[in-house]
Structure formats: structure tokens, C-alpha cells
Amino acid sequence: MATADTVGTWPFQPEEDTFEDSAALDLSYLNEEVAGQSGFVGRSPDGASFVRGDGTPIRFWAVNTDVARKGLDELRQHARFLAKRGVNMVRLHGQIALQGQAGSQIAAIDLAERDRLWQLVAAMKEEGIYTTFSPYYPHAVQTETAQDWGVPRDSGGLTGLIYFEPALQEAYKNWLRETLIPVNPYTGLALKDDPSLAIVQMQNEDSLLFWTFGGIKGHEASLLGTLFGQFLEKKYGSLAVARDAWNWSEAPGPIDGMQDDWDKGVIALSDIWYLTSDGDVGSAEVRLRDQAQFLTETMREWHAEIARFLRDDIGARQLFNAGNWRTADDVAMDDLERYAYTAGDVIGVNRYVSALHEGEHQGWAIVAGDVFREDGLLTRPLDLPTTLRQPVGHPYMISETLWVPPMWQQSEGPILMAAYQALTGMDISYWFSIDETQWSPPQSANGYLPSVGKWEVATPQQIGAFPAAALIFRLGLIDEALPVVIEHRSLDDLWSRAGPLVVARQGYDPNRDFSLRETDLLSRFLGASQVSAYSFLVGPVQVAFGSETPDFIHPELEGLVDSENRVVTSLTRQLIWDWGQGVVTLDAPRAQGVLGALSARPRIELQDVTFDSKAPYASVVVVPLDGEPIARSSRLLVQIGSIARPTGWRASPVQHEGGPALVVEEFGGAPWQVDTIEMSLAVRNPGLSQATALDANGMAMGAVEVSRAGGSLTLNLPSGALYVLLK
User: Fold this and answer.
1) What's the CA gap between 454 and 439, in Å, rounded?
2) Residue 353 burial (10 A CB sphere; 0-12, 13-18, 19+)
3) How far is CA 46 from the centre of its chain?
4) Phi-psi label, residue 521: left if phi above 0, alpha if psi -120 to 50, beta otherwise
5) Rg (CA), the chain
6) Which residue blocks in 246-329 are alpha helix, DSSP H?
7) How far apart are CA 47 and CA 727, in angstroms?
8) What confidence score (pLDDT) does residue 521 get?
9) How far apart are alpha carbons 225 and 218 in whole angstroms?
10) What pLDDT score was predicted for residue 245?
11) Residue 603 φ/ψ, nearest 5 degrees
12) pLDDT tens digits for 621-646?
């Protein structure tokens, strides 16, 4: 059937969800009645995934939320809203230390922040939603606060210091005591004893292996140099032996202009650039290997101490994630960072999807005059956040992710994440972030700058895509594949910063990365991998640290990556990513769909569903609501995604050094305007006879005309709906 291109838009103006029992779409039944009712979340026997307290495997569909600042009643409404859309985990990224008060003491906590955490845990627990708590973000520590604490930094923030600054470390432990030990008045349980608090994340976005290492100066640089000297004495037996092993080489590019003081045992550390694959090592390679080992083990030992402290001194039974950050060079150092996290239970990283966005407020707001690109991910698959090397024996979480506007091709995001998380055995991704109780309009990013905010997921094309995505991931509607690569790396391999078999690209961070990050960097990552970088889209890519076992490469891997035609097929054959045409298909017995530029492939026939459309961009999936295969299900959800932009949004082409781009002329406002998709579906299921359009809250809007022929039910997708129920 021939159809027209996408024509027109419809306004997204949902009613407040009042959670009627008559809703045709409500996934809250997937959750436990009370989060943690069977005990604390643990790890599976092989350590690599999550189980409930009774040992039942569990997967988490998750979001970051800021609604804790709105009070308990709002939180309860918020929890119901999330549970209905398939969410069973939230993350509160906070700063439990007290800031903003003159003369604040380093060990003091923010009691209001603790109360917000207490309320969040209580409200989410009632809806079967677990909580992850992130208590410390060093970059956000105010300069005045650092001065009050006696650990001032010229540039503000305390990045890196938690790993070796004794006063800060002791204060951190007190923050945890004051947060986890007192009884939560809203539940009657201390957080340490509450299994609905599933994960404690030790810190957010901090590392000794990132560019912020260069900010360590003065007293802190001297302290770190003293610790480096102690490390060398322990490793070599004496500093004299270490100096001979180094061939008397001096530190290239030392931080803060340090020089070695061998008599006092203060040894200079080089700027982090020298540990990257581009660094000018010269004759200092042995020295730099020791620095890499020292920095990594310093981080790992702190993580191990905090895990011990939480379990032994506080008695907390939660799982612990050491961190979620990146390095200055993920070719050379990503495995160092992840190895440092293995002292905790869960490995983590933050990874966003974005494209070019340049403007005065590009880190948090979209205003007129900004230059951007709005294309999605489907022609650049290696930027998918799940393209990660997973350490054997640990769950892996992405604690922040988002398809970041003004890149408006967003409805693909939740489906891609759900499908490829399921394929590769990734365990949680937390969408960042929600600050409204229910749906969020394209509103001002703050109270004084007219703009559209960037960090909001409660939109029609992201949270609107949650129901099918949550079903795909939580119920395993896409099969998990066997590992396609298992690399065994000795610790000496890590210290030498030798490139791994398969290199994962650094995730794009719109606040720290300012290039298009496409052809210039892509060639480097492809060249650095000894095995195809597209392996991540075929199945799990794993790494075993401290192992001498021979590497494993799946014999089918090479045949599933067609670089010439730019197509990669999963080991399960259920996912095909055609990055040449910008189209992804899902074709499993219980999940079938098409994502991307359907104008390139106007008819796509899958095992039970045929899609006919010439839409420039669409994201349409079919999943069962009764758990049966699509071919015999009696209740099927058709989820419809396209593009949503603010009303009045206008942009025009502009020249940019990185290629064609757009400039924002008007950023617009509420409501969202959603592109209509002209598409027909034919579902081969003999039992289906009717279709009902559903609104954003899962309520019936009216019948959709259908026809039957040859064992198939055929319909045209309605405008004005995110979902259609087939029965």
C-alpha cells in the first residue's frame, strides 16, 4: 500500500492522569505490591545481574527524578504515574552535604535533602518502585563551601579529592551515617534496613583519570605526591630501586609544576594527557605505568573502604556502585576506570545521545540563535549508550541517559535502549530527568531566561515511548545473546594502557564535548579496535580483569557485521540495524517494530507484522499485553512515536564548519506539536477483530477502523494518539 509522507501535527495536551481502573494501558501490575517485599536486591549466582530478595531475576526500567522537592503528596502521584508506564526504579542524584550556609561544617548534612530522600523512598516503595541514591557530586561543591570546609579549590568543586583527602573522606563517612542510620519517619525503617533502597552510588562523575586531574594543586598535589612515594616504596621495596627502574626519568608535564623530592618521598605526577594514547611518553613509560597503577588502585581502594564501611560499620545491605564517569581517553584508560569500580557491586557510567548544539547556554537551555543538528542516532550506531565493555561478574548500569534536544529524533531512544539492553544483558538505564509530577511541557528552563529546557524526559516522545520499551526490557521480549567477545586482560595490560580488542566510544556529554564527534573521531575508534567496533550491536562484549585465559571471539561475529552495506545483525537475528539507510527493525515473536527513515524502506515485512509508510521518521512497535506471541495474542499494544517540537518552533539551514546545520529562529512553547505518521499495519493474527485508540494516559479515545483479509487485521494509524490497543 502506498502512503503519503508525514503530514501535519497534532497538539499534545494530555489530561491529568487520575489513574482510573478502566485504563486499557497500565503496567503497574509488573511491579511488586511493595518494593523490597521479598528482601534486598542482590546479585545473581554469577554476579552479573540482579535478583530480588527471594532470588527471582529482576530487571529495572528507571528514571532520575527531581520531584522529591515537591512534597509527599506530589511524590505519591508521581510514583503512580511512573509505575503505570513501566518504571520500577528511580535515582535521586543529590548533594547530601550541607551547602549554601556561611560557616557550614564539613561533616554536616543537608537535613532538608535527607527528608526529600526519605519521602521519595516512602512514596516509591508504595508503588513497587525501588530507589537508587547518589549522595555526592564533587563538581557541584560551591567554592565558598569548600573554603568553609578547609579544602578550597581555586576553580570550585572538589573533583578527585575524595580519593585521598583525609578530612573529606572522614566527612563523607559521616554524611552516610547521618543519612542511612536514623529512622525514616515516613516508613518507620532506617534506610540501611529498607530493601526498597536498592543501590547506593558512592559518587557522581569523579575520577583521577579525567582531565580534572590537572586541577589538583598546592597542598593536595603534595599530599598525592607523598602517597605516590609510599606506593612506590611498597611496590619496589625502596624509592632508590623505583628510581633505578625508572631510569631516573623525570615526570613529563608534572601537575602544578611539581618536582620530585626523593629525600622527602614526594614524587611528582604527570598531567593526565601523558597517560592517554596520544601522550608523549618518551623515556618515562615505566614511570607512567606506575602512575596509572597508583591512580587506579587509589580509587579502587577508596571504593573498597566505603563498601566495607557501609556493610560493616553502618550495616547497610544495599548494593553499591562505585562510580559512573569516563576518562581522558577511553581507548587507553576505560578499563582502568571500570576495574577501579569492581570493588563495588555494580559497574556504572553516564552516557547521553546528542548532536551538535552551540549557544551561550548550551549546557542547559535552547534559545533563539543557537546552532544545532537534530538528526537522531540511527545513522551512527556506535553512539548508542549500551555500546560498552561489560566487566565479567558485575551488573552494569547507565545512571544517566537521554536523547538530548534540540535533537528531536527522540522516540527511537527508549526502544533502542530496551532492545539492546535486553540483547547485551545490560541491567539498568536511568533516564535523566523528571522534574514534573506527570507530563512536562516544553517550558522555560528556569524562571528568568525564556527558553526550552534540555534535561527533561517526561515528553510525548520519550516517556511516551516507555510502555512498549519497559515491556521489551523487563519481560525479555528480545532475547539476550551469548557473548560475542570475551577479552581477558592482565593487570599489567591495564597499567600499560594497551588498547583493548574492542574499543567503546566515549559517550557524548553536551556540557563537555563541543564537536560533531562523527567522522573525525569515528575513524580513530574504528582503527583502534582489533575486532569490529560494531560487535556491541551483535551481542555482549565482556572483559575479565586479572585473567590470563585466551580471548574468545564468536565464530559468527564477522558474518553479522556488513560494513560495506552498513548493516549489523544481532546474534539472535532479532535486531537488524541498517545504519546506511537509518532504519532499525525488531523482529522477535513478542516484539516487532520499525524505527527510522521509512522513506528509505516504505514496506517492511516482519514475521507477523507488515509496516507500510513513507514517513521521514517514525518509531512504531507492536508488543503483547498478555505475554503471548504476537501471532496469537488477544491483546496487542501498538506504540506510535514520531517527532515532537514546541509550538511555534522555527529553525532554518545554516553553514557550520562541521557540516550542514540549523539555527533556532523561534524556540516556541507549550504545547508539544507531534508529527502525524501516515502508516498502515497488517498484523497476521486470526483472533484480532478490533482496534481502539488510547490517549497518553492509556484511556480509550475511540474505535479505529480495521479490515480483515487472509488471516490479517489491517488498520491505518490514527492521528492524535500514542497508542492503539488491538483485541
Assistant:
1) 15
2) buried
3) 23
4) alpha
5) 26
6) 285-308
7) 41
8) 52
9) 11
10) 98
11) -130, 125
12) 999 999 999 999 999 999 999 999 99
Query: Which of 467, 458, 426 is CA-nearest to residue 83?
Result: 467
Q: Which long-range contacts (CB under 8 A, 24 or more apart) does 439-444 make?
A: 439/12, 439/14, 439/463, 439/696, 441/669, 441/670, 441/671, 441/672, 442/645, 442/646, 442/647, 442/668, 442/669, 442/670, 442/671, 442/672, 443/669, 443/670
Model confidence pLDDT, tens digit, residues 156-195: 789 999 999 999 999 999 999 999 999 999 999 999 999 9
Residue 27 near residue 624, CB atoms below 8 Å: no
The span from the CA of 465 to the CA of 472, in Å, is 11
Q: Where are the beta strands (DSSP E) in 324-395?
A: 347-350, 357-358, 365-366, 371-372, 390-391
Q: Which of 486, 468, 502, 184 is nearest to 331 (CA)?
A: 502
414: which 3 cell numbers?
Answer: 527508549
Beta pairing partners, 183? 190
Give the burial class of 443: count Cβ atoms within 10 A of its Cβ; 0-12 exposed, 13-18 middle, 19 or more buried.
middle
Residue 35 corresponds to which amino acid? A
Sign of CA dihedral 50, 51, 52, 53: negative
Asked, as a colleague might, if the bond just before 433 is cis with ω within 30 of 0, I would say: yes
pLDDT (0 to 100) of residue 507: 64
Residue appearing with cell numbers 551483535? 538
- β-partners of residue 63 are 90, 431
Instruction: Give residue 179's Cα distance to chain centre.
Output: 25
Q: In 592-715, which ranges are continuous DSSP H helix?
A: none
Of the candidates 45, 43, 48, the residue with the CA atom closest to the CA atom of residue 482 = 48
Residue 554 pLDDT? 98
| Distance in angstroms (rounded) separating the CA atoms of residues 305 and 561 | 43
* Ranges under pLDDT 50 in the chain: 1-6, 514-520
Predicted TM-score (pTM) of this structure: 0.96
Which residues lie across from 593 on neighbouring strands? Answer: 586, 621
| Alpha carbon distance 554, 571 (integer Å) | 9
Please return the burial class of 256, using the count of CB atoms within 10 Å of its CB with bins 0-12, 13-18 and 19+.
middle
| Residue 555 and residue 542 in contact, taking contact as beta carbons nearer than 8 Å | no
Report the C-alpha gap between 392 and 723 in whole angstroms: 39
Residue type, 369: G
d(C-alpha 726, C-alpha 623), whole Å: 10
Select from 405, 414, 420 the least CA-distant residue to 375: 405
Residue 155: per-residue pLDDT = 65
pLDDT of the residue at 659:
85
User: Do 609 and 683 form a contact (C-beta atoms < 8 A)?
Assistant: yes
